[in-house]
Amino acid sequence: MPGWQVIYEKLKDQNFEIVSVAQDTNGVRDAGPWITAAKPAFTVLIDEKHEVSKLYNMVNVPTGVWIDETGHIVRPNEVAFVDDRFKTFSGLESEPYLTALKDWVAKGPASAYAMSEEKLREKLAAGSPELAMAAAEFGLASYLYKAGHGAEAVAHFKEAQRLNPKDWNYKRQAYALTGEKEYGTTFRDEVEKIGGSKVYYTPPDMTEYKKKPEEKKKPEEKKPE
């Protein structure tokens, strides 16, 4: 959150807002202390029912969605790093995403990073029945857990992961609530199974991004002998 605080301070006077949503079944109990400690200047919500991740098909964190003033999606959910603290782990640089974000804030729909309707339709393809069932299983598991039936919740957490194995939020929340030992694995082991942390994060689609060429270094002047 500190990185987003910096970005918000730089862009807030350009008709830019941030709404951060914590996806935590235990709500304020788990997310509250972190939010309080961060002292965010922007809006922060807590989504105990994981409605946001379900509606936008968010499968990992940090994830960002760009929404314009009319309420229309400009870019769908994609990994959103705003600094390089986790670059070694993720293998992703924050600079391309930040460049795109600043360009969109400055230019609006004229930005090269604002996706066309055709590209958005491709990115926002309707989910399969398996994904819908996975969300239902996860919702039932979360309900059982909060009702005091943690043991019964495990089977539904497992089924949600089976139906949608690419949803890392399912794994993260299930293991945190009911314990990794119930699943015979660990979060780290699951990441290693797919090839490590570099695969864990799918890079955002920045095909429009072009890295600035490095300035040619001036040749060192020879000292007179």
Overview of this structure, please?
The chain is mostly helical and 225 residues long. It has helices at residues 2-11, 28-38, 51-56, 87-90, 95-107, 117-123, 129-146, 150-163, 168-178, 187-193, 197-200; strands spanning 19-22, 43-46, 63-67, 73-79. 47% of the residues lie in helices and 9% in strands. The strands form 2 sheets. Strands 1-2 form a two-stranded parallel sheet. Strand 3 and strand 4 form a beta hairpin.
Helix content: 40-55%
Number of strands: 4
Evaluate the radius of gyration: 21 Å
The topology string of helices and strands comes to HEHEHEEHHHHHHHH
Uncertain spans? none
Global structural class: mainly alpha
Distance from N terminus to C terminus (CA atoms, Å) equals 56 Å
Mean pLDDT over the full residue set: 90
Please tell me what the overall shape is. Answer: globular
* Biggest pleated sheet: 2 strands, parallel
Strand order of the largest sheet: 1-2
Q: What portion of the residues fall into strands of 2 or more residues? A: 5-15%
Annotate the secondary structure layout.
Elements: H1 2-11, E1 19-22, H2 28-38, E2 43-46, H3 51-56, E3 63-67, E4 73-79, H4 87-90, H5 95-107, H6 117-123, H7 129-146, H8 150-163, H9 168-178, H10 187-193, H11 197-200
Parallel strand pairs: 1-2
Antiparallel strand pairs: 3-4
Helix pairs in contact: 7-8, 8-9
Summarize this entry quickly:
With 225 residues, the protein is mainly α. The chain has helices at residues 2-11, 28-38, 51-56, 87-90, 95-107, 117-123, 129-146, 150-163, 168-178, 187-193, 197-200; strands at 19-22, 43-46, 63-67, 73-79. It starts with a helix and ends in a 25-residue tail after the last helix.
